[in-house]
Specification:
16 strands; about 400 residues; 8-stranded mixed β-sheet; elongated; 2 domains; Beta-Lactamase; Alpha-Beta Plaits
Length: about 400
Amino acid sequence: MNSSELQRVCNWLIDGAWSAQEPAEMIADFCERLIAAGLPLWRFGIFIRTLHPEVFGRNFIWRQGEEVEIGAVEFEILDSPQFAQSPLRIVFEQRIEIRGRIDDPESERFPFIKDMQAEGATDYIAVPLPFLDGSGHATSWVTRHPGGFSDDDIAAIRAVMAPLARVSEIISLRRTAEMLLDTYVGNRAGARILGGQIRRGHNDTMQAAIWLSDLRGFTALSDRLPAETVVEILNQYFDCQVAAIRGHGGEVLKFMGDGLLAVFPIDEYVGDATHVCARVLEAARESRASVEALAIPVGDVVERFRFGVALHVGNILYGNIGGGNRLDFTCIGPAVNLAARLEKITGRLGRTVVASEGFAKVCRHDWHELGEFPIAGFSKAQRVYGLAEETPVVMA
């Protein structure tokens, strides 16, 4: 190893690896710099645990002459035989290095190392990547060089670990913030918050299609079932809607008990109002089918469910609302209030989907006029529409 070139790699990391814009680019650049400094590297992997409700971690795998592979690992991996026999499990749990030389019989206990040897690898080492917050992550290094890594090579790998950990932690923290904001406030709102829109009263007006739904009979359901069962039902019920909403360009803003508020922005990045509202209606139909198919066994009974969703289109105020330093990034305005009132009408009419006159005019479809209804808080009665394809069902 060339010590001066190795120091340049360390300095590059300490300076923030600014030549790369994306993690995959940084990793490729990092590996090429190490090779130029004399490290006989053939394969490099970095494994970062994440703070995400569904994803245990992300991995980036570089091989000489190939694009960086990016993957995500779900929590189920922790119970798999693959993880139980992986050298990375020991690195994660014990924070120690694991070496796997081709001439070491001990390496045979790790199927992965045997697989690497079958591809021509001569040496493998997995090294902990500790973050300042105390969390443990890992890297793996593989060579095809005859005789494996030298003592100088291993020393060089250890020398780059501290600066690699620092820049990796910075990138990971940024991504964790993005994922948490996406999980709890939605992608569009999260991007605005990260962009600095964090002051109370900092908000914008935008046109959007509004989705407001709730589960029929939820109060009675909560009264007769254990709380844990109710939570499981709600999670599966919301799954029926969230996938459809996000799949058609919407953003879920809030869960309110069994209620769900979502918006489908109408702007130059999404499309015109007619196109957006057509996607909203398609999402409502998909959700209706998913909820109707939902069947959850509870004791000797199979629970079935119905829900109602109101669709409206209008201008909303979108931004930070709250008291003191506790804020909520949400939307308000008469259009949201009207959608909430219309949602209550779905149950009275035995309908799954109802739309305001404004939505029905924008979304050209076979609508059936259901009549005019007085709406609390609004001076004029509102004309309401339902899908001609739906048969009213009055809940007992």
